[in-house]
Specification:
Elements: H1 7-46, H2 54-77, H3 81-103, H4 110-132
Length: 137
């Protein structure tokens, strides 16, 4: 027999569930971004002719990580896709900028602004796509 959950308990558990869902989705997105960055770095190290494309590969890995982050956050939080995608972009941006600051000796440039917009757009698109996909029976 299921226990009835009071309205007050639901109100308390919603913010905690939201915070946990955002943390999980952002960690998954960051891990996927790092894995793809290492994969593309390995590809670049094996073929020295295409080293000019390293920033493009980094943007692609951030795009993939952002899409996954927005997708997972919408599934976990059950919010609207746009709201969930935008809310999951904030922690992911903090994680990615921390990594970028570490590797660039504390300096940011125009590329950092591009990364900001890529994360915002990709997590939002991932959230919208996740909200619009239906479960199949």
């Amino acid at each position: 027999m299921r226990k009835k959950i009071s309205k007050k308990q639901k109100e308390i558990s919603l913010p905690i569930k939201s915070i946990i869902g955002l943390c999980v989705s952002c960690l998954v997105g960051a891990v996927i971004t790092i894995v793809f960055s290492f994969l593309f770095s390995y590809i670049l190290s094996k073929s020295p002719k295409i080293t000019k494309l390293s920033s493009v590969y980094f943007i692609v890995s951030i795009l993939i990580g952002g899409l996954v982050c927005g997708f997972i956050s919408t599934k976990l939080l059950s919010f609207k896709g746009l709201i969930s995608g935008l809310s999951s972009s904030v922690p992911l941006i903090i994680i990615i900028f921390t990594i970028m600051l570490f590797f660039s000796n504390g300096r940011l440039n125009n590329f950092s602004v591009i990364v900001l917009f890529v994360v915002l757009i990709s997590t939002t698109i991932g959230g919208i796509v996740s909200a619009n996909t239906k479960r199949r029976k």
